[in-house]
Automatic annotation (TrEMBL):
It comes from the Bacteria. Signal peptide: none annotated. This is cytochrome-c oxidase. Keywords: Cell membrane, Membrane, Transmembrane, Transmembrane helix. GO terms for cellular component: plasma membrane. The keyword Protein biosynthesis does not apply. Its EC number is 7.1.1.9. It comes from Tengunoibacter tsumagoiensis. Part of cytochrome c oxidase, its function is unknown. Residues 1-20, 35-44 have a biased composition (Polar residues). Belongs to the cytochrome c oxidase bacterial subunit CtaF family. It is a multi-pass membrane protein. GO terms for molecular function: cytochrome-c oxidase activity.
Length: 115
């Protein structure tokens, strides 16, 4: 019965307020428990993080000749090889085999070409 009166006195118009009786009840409810320690240990402390400023490195200027690839005939050879491959699909299996071999040679030649 006393608990109902305390609950009613604590709750007024939907807002909770504290009363001395409620504080006494919670204080006497667990006398054997200890309060958490407020001491800090070495593990709790972290070293401050120091961020380094990013420094923009000065690079050397590159010319257009260094960026662009050198002229090559391999793309033209690959175009003819694909045309032979497609013609082989339509005409006969021997031409198809020749087209496959030409495409492989053209792709390998273009990828292994030195600058």
């Amino acid at each position: 019965m006393a608990q109902k009166q305390q609950a009613q006195s604590i709750e007024t118009e939907g807002e909770l307020t504290s009363s001395p009786a409620a504080d006494e009840v919670t204080a006497t409810a667990a006398p054997d428990t200890e309060a958490p320690s407020t001491e800090t240990t070495v593990e709790d402390q972290t070293a401050p993080v120091v961020e380094k400023k990013r420094v923009k490195k000065k690079g050397r200027l590159v010319s257009v000749d260094e960026i662009l690839p050198k002229p090559s005939y391999w793309p033209v050879f690959l175009a003819f090889a694909v045309a032979a491959l497609l013609f082989g699909c339509v005409s006969n299996p021997y031409m198809l085999g020749v087209g496959i071999i030409l495409v492989i040679v053209a792709v390998l030649g273009w990828t292994l070409e030195r600058r």
